[in-house]
């Protein structure tokens, strides 16, 4: 007798939008333990950053976030962009960590704000 393996459905959404004249693609995928987001203006995954919540002083209601570059170039701007783009996702997803692929031509404040809106439009959490 063979067993039937039931694989949970992985929810994913994607979209494309022009931000400051640059084609920007977003793919958001929900896994049981992570939210995976690819945000690219190059058509590639780019630098892979883990954004993880950590409670401060034992207070769960006050979260701080740590970023760690897993693959790609280690730059201060990468950490800043990752925190701005992924913090709200983690908070809305019950403080799950976010794995973020970033490949950006435009990392201006205005572009990052617009990218957050595009990420919200692909919400799977």
TrEMBL record:
Taxonomically, the superkingdom here is: Eukaryota
**What gene is this protein a product of?**
LOC110486302
The family database entries (InterPro entries) matched by this protein are listed as: Proteasome_assmbl_chp_3, Psm_Assembly_Chaperone
One Pfam family here: PAC3
Protein name in UniProt = Proteasome (prosome, macropain) assembly chaperone 3
Q: Which residues cross the membrane?
A: none
Annotated GO biological process: proteasome assembly
């Amino acid at each position: 007798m063979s067993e039937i393996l039931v694989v949970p459905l992985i929810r994913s959404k994607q979209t494309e939008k022009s931000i400051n004249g640059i084609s920007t693609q977003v793919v958001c995928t929900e896994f049981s333990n992570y939210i995976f987001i690819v945000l690219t203006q190059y058509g590639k995954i780019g630098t892979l950053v883990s954004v993880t919540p950590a409670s401060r002083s034992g207070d769960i209601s006050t979260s701080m976030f740590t970023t760690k570059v897993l693959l790609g170039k280690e730059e201060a701007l990468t950490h800043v962009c990752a925190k701005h783009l992924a913090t709200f996702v983690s908070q809305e997803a019950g403080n799950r960590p976010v794995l973020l692929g970033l490949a950006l031509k435009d990392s201006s404040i205005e572009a990052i704000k617009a990218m957050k809106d595009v990420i919200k439009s692909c919400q799977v959490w």
